[in-house]
Structures are given as structure tokens and as C-alpha cells.
Task: inverse folding
């Protein structure tokens, strides 16, 4: 036993081993120490009787790799769902990134007024564009829409009442629930109406001297059909005006323009009635970076700015610049610079062609049966839950692997798919044609490992 312990290399010896020449000593040393200690203990407890030095070094190298490799990687989205929080929501277009790179890599006037040499506000860069687009009074940008909801409730409804319909007490993925956010912000929730029906009179009857806000929350990820009705935000705005209250709409997605949809009023339409406050996400249908965008009356936005919480919800220059570039794309009607819109807008004919091209790439792979079909894809991200976007997909079945196994293997290689009719469904909507060769290689690697090794 002792002899085995004696053959255990010293930390310093291992550090000098050429095998570790390209590692960082500060990271490597504790790994070596830990592995040597484990080995020592294993020897003492008779769990190992021989020492394989090569294997020991490999273990060190593998641990080092695991601890230093990046864990985030690009993925190919074949689910057809455009907005997925788990996959990073809206993509940013390379053109847009090129526009902002010079500003990210140099100093800039983010918060500096070049006329007065005084400190200014970072959101003014967004304000002038958004006010041009929407004819609104003022704008504030925070970390995400959840922050926007929280900031608004905390500023105007702390220990005061917020009236909201029972049909709008929604839960968004990732544990965002309107009642919980209300509680945390200090606002007192006053539910009115029923799950399926709420009338204007329900709000009106609930108004007391303690009421601060008449709130509407977008149902986002679900849709009520049948015997149901809700009060239009426009009516809430009128009611709020009548009683000198604040009307606030948590819009969730925030649809600006660029899609052929009737289901969702655009921000333009919503702003026509000059609401007190609206808030929406920057990275849902709007198609920009993660942010919470608040628009509304100047005196209210000014009060939001005075809340010390704002400092904790402040966005980085990256967000401001990416938002600004997205807004410029909207102003110039360059929807091709907003991938979310581009993906949702792709004509069916073009998707069919895209599916044909992918089919040709995958067809030569032996043991893969493929069929091209028409499917519905979804906007996702809690947007437009009932609106089907017609698309084309390839249904693939392997004669060698179970579909669930194939799905897992594809995912390990970075291709995210869904299962339809017990087959792998590759919806082409969110795939890029330049990745089709990569997709073919992934299938080859999984289904014919020998032949692809030989290449
Ligand atoms: C998505 C959503 C939120 C949360 O927005 P984030 O930008 O993800 O923080 C809040 N409210 C509604 C209605 C939503 O749809």
C-alpha cells in the first residue's frame, strides 16, 4: 500500500507536465490537488490497487476542460416556434449588430449631454424615436417587462388598490404571476368580474378612495373562447380619466407593426387614446433585445424616474443601442433587420422551397425516411397563442433509432426538434438555409457514424 502511495506524483511534477502546457496554473493546481487527494484516499481505503498515471493525467485534463469550456452554444431551432424564452427569444440581425458595434467599442454620449456638458439620461436616445413612431409623451426603459410591471405598481400603488379583471390574473412562464408581483410591489389586488366575463361596471363599482390604478394585463399565452367578454383598454382609459386614476396596460408582447395579423392591436392603435401607461417586452413580438419598455404621460414617467428602484433596473448601453437600432429599423420600415418579424412573415411559398432544399440535403442519408408536410408554427413567447402561421416541415423517421432517441441525439448535436405523429418534425420557419449542410451532417453523424468517420 505504502509503495503505491509513494508512486503518486507530486503536485509540482504534474504542473510541469507538457500535457498541461496550455492550461492556466491557477485553475489547474486546485484540480490536481483534489484529484491527488481523492486518489490518496482511494489507496488508503483499498479501493484501488494499481496506479495508472496516464489515466490520472487524462482525468485532470478532462476536469480542466469541463471547468473552463463555455456552456452556452448556438442551436438550430427546428421547432417552428419563433419566440422561445429558453432559447433566447428574439434574435438580433447581424446588420443591426454591425451598426452598433462602433458605439459599443468606443466611448459614447450614453448619459452625457454634449451641449450642456452635463449628465443626461440614457433613455432619451430611445425616447425621441419611440415618440416619433407612436406619438406618445414619454418613455422609460428597464431591464425587462417584469421589472416594468413591478416598478409601475410599486411607484403608484404601494398600499393602494389596483383593480384588475379575474380573467387577467395570468401566469407567464418562469413563475411570473400577476398576483405575486402585485404583492411584492406593495400593491393591493382588487379582483373584479369573473374568469370569463368582466364588464366596465365591475371596475366602476370597485373604485374607492384607495384606488390608484385600473389595470389590464394581456392574457398572453392563453385565449378564451365561447361565453366571454372583457373591457377594452380604451374604455378603461376613459373610466380612469373620469375618476382621476391611472390606467395601465401590461401588454406583454407589444406588437408594433410588420405582420399581417388582426388578432392583436398594434402599439399605434393603443397609443391613439393617449393611455396613462403601457408596458411591453423588448424581445417578444417587438423583436429587439431584452428590455421593459414603458410609454405614457410625462408626469407619470417622471414619477417612475424618481423611484430609487429604477437604479437597480437600469439597462446597459448594449440594450439601449440594440433597442435604438431596432427602432430605427421600424422607422425606416426595414423589417428584414428584425428576424422575429422576418420569420413570422416568410410567405408559405418560400417556406415550401426552403423545405424542398432541406429535403434534397437529407434525402441521401440511408435509413432515414422523410416526408414533406404542411404544418402550423407558432409565434411563442406568450404571443398570439391562437394564431397559426402556416409552414412547411419535414417528418423524419429512422429505421434504426426510436424517434425519442433520435430527438435526444439531435439535441445533443444542437438541433432542437419536436415530435409529430411519432416522427421528428423539422419546421423550416426558424432555420437558416446556410445551416442546412450542418443539419445533414448531424443526421449523418447520428445515423451512419462509420461512413461519416471515414470522410
Ligand atoms: C411576457 C410577459 C411579461 C414578462 O415580460 P418579460 O419581458 O419576460 O419580463 C409580463 N406580462 C405579460 C402579460 C407578459 O406576456
Result:
Amino acid at each position: 500500500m505504502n509503495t503505491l502511495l509513494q508512486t503518486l506524483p507530486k503536485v509540482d511534477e504534474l504542473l510541469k507536465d507538457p500535457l498541461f502546457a496550455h492550461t492556466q496554473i491557477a485553475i489547474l493546481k486546485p484540480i490536481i490537488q483534489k484529484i491527488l487527494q481523492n486518489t490518496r484516499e482511494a489507496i488508503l481505503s483499498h479501493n484501488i490497487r494499481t496506479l495508472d498515471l496516464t489515466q490520472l493525467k487524462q482525468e485532470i485534463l478532462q476536469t480542466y476542460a469541463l471547468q473552463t469550456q463555455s456552456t452556452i452554444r448556438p442551436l438550430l431551432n427546428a421547432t417552428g416556434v419563433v419566440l422561445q424564452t429558453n432559447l433566447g427569444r428574439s434574435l438580433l440581425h447581424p446588420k443591426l449588430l454591425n451598426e452598433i458595434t462602433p458605439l459599443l467599442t468606443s466611448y459614447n454620449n450614453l448619459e452625457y449631454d454634449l451641449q450642456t456638458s452635463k449628465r443626461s439620461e440614457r433613455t432619451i436616445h430611445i425616447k425621441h424615436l419611440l415618440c416619433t413612431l407612436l406619438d406618445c409623451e414619454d418613455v422609460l426603459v428597464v431591464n425587462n417587462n417584469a421589472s416594468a410591471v413591478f416598478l409601475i405598481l410599486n411607484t403608484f400603488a404601494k398600499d393602494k388598490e389596483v383593480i384588475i379583471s379575474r380573467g387577467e390574473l395570468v401566469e407567464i412562464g418562469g413563475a411570473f404571476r400577476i398576483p405575486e408581483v402585485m404583492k411584492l410591489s406593495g400593491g393591493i389586488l382588487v379582483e373584479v368580474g369573473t374568469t370569463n366575463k368582466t364588464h366596465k361596471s365591475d371596475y366602476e363599482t370597485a373604485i374607492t378612495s384607495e384606488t390608484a390604478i385600473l389595470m389590464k394585463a394581456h392574457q398572453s399565452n392563453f385565449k378564451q373562447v365561447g361565453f366571454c367578454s372583457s373591457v377594452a383598454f380604451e374604455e378603461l382609459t376613459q373610466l380612469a380619466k373620469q375618476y382621476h386614476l391611472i390606467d395601465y396596460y401590461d401588454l406583454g408582447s407589444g406588437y408594433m407593426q410588420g405582420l399581417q395579423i388582426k388578432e392583436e392591436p398594434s402599439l399605434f392603435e393603443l397609443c391613439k387614446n393617449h393611455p396613462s401607461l403601457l408596458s411591453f417586452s423588448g424581445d417578444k413580438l417587438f423583436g429587439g433585445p431584452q428590455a421593459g419598455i414603458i410609454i405614457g404621460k410625462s408626469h407619470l414617467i417622471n414619477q417612475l424616474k424618481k423611484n430609487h428602484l429604477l437604479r437597480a433596473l437600469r439597462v446597459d448601453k448594449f440594450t439601449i443601442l440594440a433597442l435604438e437600432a431596432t427602432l430605427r429599423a421600424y422607422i425606416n420600415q426595414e423589417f428584414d433587420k428584425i428576424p422575429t418579424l422576418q420569420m413570422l412573415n416568410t410567405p408559405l411559398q418560400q417556406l415550401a422551397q426552403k423545405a424542398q432544399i432541406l429535403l434534397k440535403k437529407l434525402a441521401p442519408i440511408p435509413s432515414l425516411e422523410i416526408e414533406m408536410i404542411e404544418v402550423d408554427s407558432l409565434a411563442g413567447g406568450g404571443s398570439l397563442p391562437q394564431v397559426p402561421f402556416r409552414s412547411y416541415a419535414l417528418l423524419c423517421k429512422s429505421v434504426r433509432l426510436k424517434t425519442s432517441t433520435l430527438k435526444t441525439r439531435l439535441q445533443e448535436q444542437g438541433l432542437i426538434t419536436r415530435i409529430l405523429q411519432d416522427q421528428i418534425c423539422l419546421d423550416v420557419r426558424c432555420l437558416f438555409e446556410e445551416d442546412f449542410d450542418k443539419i445533414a451532417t448531424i443526421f449523418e453523424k447520428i445515423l451512419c457514424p462509420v461512413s461519416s468517420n471515414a470522410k
